[in-house]
Design goal:
about 270 residues; about 15% strand; TIM Barrel; globular
Length: about 270
């Protein structure tokens, strides 16, 4: 059972609520809806992380960092010490996706270290409201992730507590997996919920995002796209990011949900 109760804070506690969606410096959609690309270093060369981050710094919006603990998912990647080191060299803001047990315990530390976004999994969180608020209080944007088999509707009341909803389009744990089309209807429902609540929540997709799938994601409602193999598996990561952005922008410009979005107002 997921605890939705709010743990009381001391009087006088100041919450640093992140500002609404910044316009992507690389997007050509203007005020309609900013497409954002977040290359995942899970597919990068771990021995050259600073160089790999620099390769996309001029064209991407975020650097996606997959933190895995070999418990919540069957893979072990990196943790807070590596994130702290990467923060010293990365020009892009870090988008930390925590695929770990006990995110309630560990997530605020990533925000305190300087990550610009910290996403936790609803399947692993026991006190999501408290944790999401702690992430925001530390100055980061707060994200909530759901696995392919997890419905979004039971967590719609949390939309007012988050800045981004991440829909996994593969089972979490490994890069290079095939995209799961079964998530697209859920993405459409999530977009409708965001519109219903009138919140400035970004919708991110992660897993199998490539030139073959990114347009379907954009048409269904995604506006933030994590791409690992499609970027770092290419000969020119920067050019791959630019190509993915162009595809997503074309699809978004013709998407029904985007046409119903008020100019200047997210989803």
């Amino acid at each position: 059972m997921v605890e939705l109760s709010i743990e009381p804070y001391l009087r006088g506690t100041t919450f640093l609520i992140p500002s609404p969606r910044p316009a992507s410096p690389h997007s050509t959609l203007g005020l309609i809806m900013a497409v954002q690309i977040s290359p995942s270093i899970l597919s990068a060369d771990f021995g050259r992380l600073a160089d790999e981050a620099a390769a996309v710094a001029a064209v991407a919006d975020w650097l996606h960092v997959d933190v895995m603990d070999n418990h919540f998912v069957p893979n072990l990647t990196l943790g807070l010490p590596v994130v702290e080191s990467l923060l010293k060299y990365a020009a892009l803001p870090l988008d930390c996706h925590l695929m770990i047990e006990e995110p309630d315990r560990w997530a605020p530390g990533y925000a305190e270290a300087g990550a610009a976004n910290v996403t936790i999994h609803v399947e692993a969180a026991h006190a999501p409201v408290r944790t999401l608020r702690a992430i925001r209080a530390a100055g980061a944007r707060a994200g909530l992730a759901v696995n392919p088999g997890t419905s979004v509707e039971p967590y719609e009341d949390l939309l007012t507590e988050i800045d981004m909803l991440l829909l996994m389009t593969v089972e979490p744990g490994f890069g290079g997996q095939h995209f799961l089309d079964m998530v697209l209807p859920k993405l459409r429902r999530a977009r409708a919920l965001v519109a219903q609540y009138g919140t400035a929540v970004w919708l991110q997709v992660d897993g199998g995002v490539s030139e073959e799938t990114i347009e379907r994601c954009a048409e269904a409602g995604a506006d933030v796209f994590v791409a690992g193999t499609a970027v770092y598996g290419s000969d020119d990561p920067a050019r791959a990011v630019q190509a993915l952005r162009a595809q997503a922008e074309r699809a978004t410009a013709h998407a029904t949900w985007a046409a119903h979005t008020e100019p200047g107002r997210p989803g």
